[in-house]
Design goal:
Layout lengths: L1 E5 L6 E11 L14 E11 L7 E13 L2 E14 L4 E7 L2 E8 L5 H13 L13 E9 L3 H7 L9 E10 L2 E2 L1
Antiparallel strand pairs: 1-2, 2-3, 3-4, 4-5, 5-6, 6-7, 7-8, 8-9, 9-10
Length: 179
């Protein structure tokens, strides 16, 4: 670890480099399924904000390597840029696997539940998550999947997505459902 985490001001600052050479989730009681599972990565942050929903800045994951019994995957460079304002938010993700842009009015802390809700509304893939949208929540998404197969084979082997798939859309979510 090298850098700064400053929690002394109203807007916290996270400006650091983290080199994780061998994270073993099994021995940390994070994942008790596979004692051979490990991860290594280099994380660079330049973020500010007092809560997850207020974060602004960049997060970069460099040379990530994940291994478990019978499988491994390596990703070289993933850059996430986050912008949160009072009325709009934007998230940009760039890597050799995916390019994605999400903008609109949403809470960063609720993105996993929001995505499950959206997918469930369209194709019923997941169970209904506990999700309460913001008033006038809206989103615009543009997603380009270059080649997600190595990542999917490691983390979600039951799924497959064709190379060079894309998804674009927009919508609004209210207490009455999706519009």
């Amino acid at each position: 670890f090298a850098g700064l985490i400053d929690l002394s001001t109203p807007e916290y600052t996270y400006d650091f480099l983290l080199n994780v050479t061998r994270l073993r989730p099994y021995y940390l009681n994070l994942n008790r399924n596979d004692p051979e599972y490990f991860a290594s990565f280099f994380l660079r942050t330049d973020l500010s904000g007092s809560r997850l929903d207020d974060l602004n800045g960049d997060l970069q994951l460099v040379n990530s390597f994940f291994r478990r019994t019978g499988a491994q995957v390596q990703m070289y460079d993933i850059l996430a840029s986050i912008t949160n304002g009072p009325d709009t938010s934007a998230l940009s993700l760039r890597s050799e696997i995916i390019d994605a842009d999400l903008s609109g009015r949403y809470r960063l802390s609720q993105l996993p539940a929001m995505f499950q809700y959206i997918v469930n509304e369209h194709i019923g893939l997941f169970g209904s998550p506990e999700y309460i949208p913001l008033e006038d929540e809206q989103y615009q998404i543009d997603l380009q999947l270059k080649d997600a197969s190595p990542l999917l084979e490691f983390f979600y082997p039951q799924f497959s997505i064709a190379k060079n798939s894309s998804l674009s859309g927009s919508g609004e979510i209210s207490d009455n459902g999706m519009l």
